[in-house]
């Protein structure tokens, strides 16, 4: 006996609910993968810069005044990354610590990835941060 119109509608509704749920699940997975891959891109490209900054400071006793001082002794060249729109480096007010900031528009919300040699962030900065990973603290721009 063929299925009634009501039975077909119920089955179609159940399939629609499952399809919608699967779509939202897939979209959520995709968004998390994008965030993760962007963070790993920043980490992978700029960790050698952090190592070079640390080596420079260890050998010279003070941080470099700009990133070009790292080339060519500590880095062959400054890295270029598709996830980085701009890079800022500065020596902090105490004169012994530095901060590297990577500005990125790779995600829908622009972000700033910040790494400080001291690894110290104020409570207010920590409350404003989106996440943290591998020594980097991430802020919305």
Task: Please give a handful of descriptors for the protein shown.
2 helices, single chain, elongated, alpha+beta, 141 residues
Molecular structure report:
This protein is of the alpha+beta class and 141 residues long. The chain has one domain. Helix content is 44%, strand content 21%. The N and C termini lie far apart (62 Å).
Query: How many strand units?
Result: 5
Round the Cα radius of gyration to an integer and report it: 23 Å
**What structural class do you assign from the helix and strand content?**
alpha+beta
The stretches of 5 or more residues where confidence is low (pLDDT under 50) are: none
Distance between the termini: 62 Å
Spatial arrangement of strands, main beta sheet: 1-2-3-5-4
Rough shape?
elongated
**Mean pLDDT figure:** 88
Q: Can you count the helices? A: 2
What is the domain tally? 1
The portion of residues assigned to helices is 40-55%
Let me know the largest β-sheet. 5 strands, antiparallel
Strand content: 15-25%
- Order of helical and strand elements: HEEEHEE
């Amino acid at each position: 006996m063929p299925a009634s119109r009501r039975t077909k509608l119920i089955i179609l509704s159940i399939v629609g609910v499952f399809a919608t749920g699967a779509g939202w699940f897939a979209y959520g997975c995709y968004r998390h993968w994008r965030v993760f891959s962007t963070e790993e891109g920043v980490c992978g490209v700029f960790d050698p810069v952090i190592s070079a900054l640390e080596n420079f400071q260890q050998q010279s006793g003070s941080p470099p005044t700009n990133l070009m001082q790292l080339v060519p002794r500590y880095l062959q060249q400054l890295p270029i990354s598709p996830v980085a729109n701009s890079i800022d480096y500065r020596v902090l007010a105490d004169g012994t610590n530095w901060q590297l900031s990577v500005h990125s528009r790779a995600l829908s919300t622009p972000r700033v990835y910040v790494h400080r040699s001291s690894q110290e962030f104020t409570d207010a900065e920590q409350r404003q941060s989106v996440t943290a990973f591998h020594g980097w603290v991430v802020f919305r721009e």
